Amino acid sequence: MNTDRKPALRLENIVKTFPGVRALDDVSFEVFPGEVHALMGENGAGKSTLMKVLGGIHQPDEGRIFVEEAEAVMTTPLHAKARGVMFIHQELSLAEELSVAENVYLGELPRKSLGRVDWATLYANTDEILKRLKVGFTARTRVGDLSIANQQMVEIARALTVDAKVVIFDEPTASLTDAEKVVLFEVIAGLQAEGVGIVYISHRMEEIFKITDRISVLRDGEYRGTLVTSETNEDEITQMMIGRSLDLSRRTARGEVGKTALRVEGLSCGSLFQDISFDVRQGEVVGFYGLVGAGRTEIAETLFGLRTPSAGKIFLKDEELRIHSPIEAIRHGISLVPESRKEQGLVLGMNCRDNITLPQVSDLVAGPFVSDGAEVAIFDQYRDRLEIKTPSWRSAVGNLSGGNQQKIVIGKWLAMRPEVLIVDEPTRGIDVGSKSEIHNLLRDLAARGFAVIVISSEMPEVLHVSDRIVAMYQGRVMRIFDAEEVTEDSLIQAISGIENGKVA
Amino acid sequence: MQRMNTTDLIKGGAIWGFIVLELVFFSVAGSFWSLSESAFMDFDNMLLLLKQSAPIGIIAVGMTIIMINGNIDLSVGATFALSAVVMLDSMNWPIMAGLGDWAIPVAWLLALLTGAVLGFINGIIVWKTGVDAFIVTLGSMLGFRGLVFMYNGENPTFHLNWTMVDIAEWDALGVETPALVLIAVVVVAWLIMTRTVHGRNAYAIGNNREAAVNAGLRVGPHMLINFVIIGTLAALSAVAFYSASGSVNPNDGMLFELWAITAVVLGGTKLTGGSGSIIGTFGGVIAIQLLRKGLGHIGADTETVNLVIGSILIAVLFLDRQLNRKGQEELKV
Q: In which domain, by residue range, is B110 found?
């Protein structure tokens, strides 16, 4: 980083208000060419609003934006692009049926006379950009055939079609595996070397410390300051973000472990996973760790009746079960908090109460009608127990923060008094403060005697909440660790398929 | 099911505001241009309006339930016609002649049964094949209409029974049978959708089918029930209408599906499912009928009426979109 040069991007006292809310309050910071600048803050701290201001979607009420020290007034997304401010959004926006090249130059396809597409130039230009990114696919590949990580590379390629001054990454690693992250960080380092200023938005501390030079923190729309990454630590950042420090130490001591609640023997499902055996006892949290595609979510879906196993047995309290649908799984007391909350877990158009009572509403009747009182009683009980923050049970669940939404999904199943609670990616897309709340909640549930399975792609999370850890690699259980004996190294080796120092 | 907060109330109330606007406009405009002597807002005229709303209105209530559930039913017009044919033709059967006036309830039951069976056919295909309801009911719309023509060719089916006409034109305080049926259907459907488990689950399935499956809801049976409900309501609509007229043409009920959808959408129900209300649809039905009558009152012809209704439909949905977008932007800060 060279601070003698003029900044690639400079924000000066940006203020943006919406009716009743001061979304951005006096935000100022600058990003130098070749710098990776982290933007951190809890959900609702104003990061998205700031992005929209930079992207020309919202106009600031006060303050100015400079790109290479020239004031940039951006009133449409096209202005931002023209000034070289590019975005890599968290949610990919690609046309899956089109080729990589068509996506990269979407809306700006090179043309010949009579409006014909100049395919040769299109493919040549795209391949050139792809070469810079060192990816393993070509301009002619259909985007729908690419992995999520490679689709993200297409988005990045899009940003490189113009002379980008600033590239803004919004939670780019949210759905990437550890191996894919390494590739992404190499690409970011490449952009850095070319002198592009990078704004990097993420909740993940280990990434922040790995790749960023400086960190700017927002809290409730206010700019809290900028730190130099090499001179700070997690505690300081967390305190700036949430105004208090968090206890991120190892999990609380193991509680009383009871009888075996769930036992799985030799469970297989086609090519997805094979010969899976493990057990979960009452009062313990068993973590499943592995790369994306290792078959963890598929095991959860099989236990929940969404997939039919091709072999193997499932025992609940020593009684063999045949589960063909979620309805049967739920009746036996197996519950699943799915990976993507909004798509699979919540009915977003419904209010908080109705989401919590959804699986059992047919039992809450008085005569022909649903009993309002019984429903509200259940909602109140779980709002208090899980400390769900919502103005009222009438609030649409879509308006809650990610952490509170997740609590609604968990509360929905607790209200069914399950034997086994499976939680897939419990804190995906949830801010730091709520993350530890969810972790404590999972530990607390185990202490109350529930058998809990946690599937996570984040190693600190798995280490933090689990009593035992099932390490998976390519559809197989490599090893089951006890929390006391596990080390980060041995865990990484296991999920990379390395057994006793040898590749399995 | 969703208790209303203020914004919902404004959105849900929009259709009633529109109705008031229509009433005022046609009353004022009518005093200049109307050819008739009576005032537009005449009480008898309003009662007549309610009665004229009944055929489409009863079907639109069923369509609301189907659309909240995330499906659509294009076959209601054909179901309406076929149920009417069964009702009127059955009264001509020799076996029915021996029943005297008891033939009337039997014919009604046969008509309702026809509607229920046709709805069941739609529902079971949608459930078991997983083919989109739009495609399934597009096919059954053609198929059911084919059955109507197979029944009696191009000829009308008729049967006149004065007792039946008397029942159909009976009134309580001036409100005639078809209007009473419409009101009863609205009330019962409203209770089902807001107060019962089935209604709650229908909303959930329409809003997020995957989450509903994951919560252990039986998606297929709920959809099947709703198709049976709309089939039965299409038949009930035919019963209410043809008991008085006594004659059905094989082309009757054409485009009813589109009028019903228009009323439902005007009333605030979304095509994507998961939200909407029976009361809103009732408002939509009244609004359309008011427009037809009102434009007629000031001397416009049918073609103009359709043009105006079409334009208003698009304008209303555009406004709705603008309002919703604004709402979302404020929430996202």
A: 53-297+304-317
Q: Per the structure, how many domains does chain B have?
A: 1
Domain assignment present for residue B264? The answer is yes
Chain B CB contacts of A331 under 8 Å are 216
In this complex, which of A23, A326, A347 lies closest to B207 when CB atoms are compared?
Answer: A347
Q: Rounded mean pLDDT of B8-20?
A: 75
Measured between CA atoms, how close is A308 to chain B, in angstroms? 15
Q: Which residues of chain A have pLDDT under 50?
A: 1, 247-249, 504
Q: Number of Cβ pairs closer than 8 Å across A and B?
A: 86
Q: State the CB neighbour count (10 A cutoff) for residue B5.
A: 14
Is B285 part of any domain? yes
User: Which residues 6+ apart lie within 8 Å of A367 measured at CB?
Assistant: none
Domains of chain A (ranges plus CATH)?
9-242 (3.40.50.300), 260-347+417-503 (3.40.50.300)
Taking CB atoms and an 8 Å cutoff, what residues of chain A touch B330?
18-19
Residues 6 or more apart whose Cβ sits within 8 Å of residue B203 = A347, A349, A350, B1, B68, B69, B193, B274, B275
CATH number at residue B171: 1.10.3470
pLDDT in tens, B76-85: 999 999 999 9
* B66 inside domain: yes
Taking only the tens place, the pLDDT of each residue in B134-167 is 999 999 999 999 999 999 888 999 888 888 888 9
Contact A350 B330 (CB under 8 A): no
Q: What is the pLDDT of residue B35?
A: 65
Closest CA to B156 of B71, B73, B252: B252
Element (H, E) at B100: none
**Residue from the list A19, A23, A359 with its beta carbon closest to the beta carbon of B216:** A359
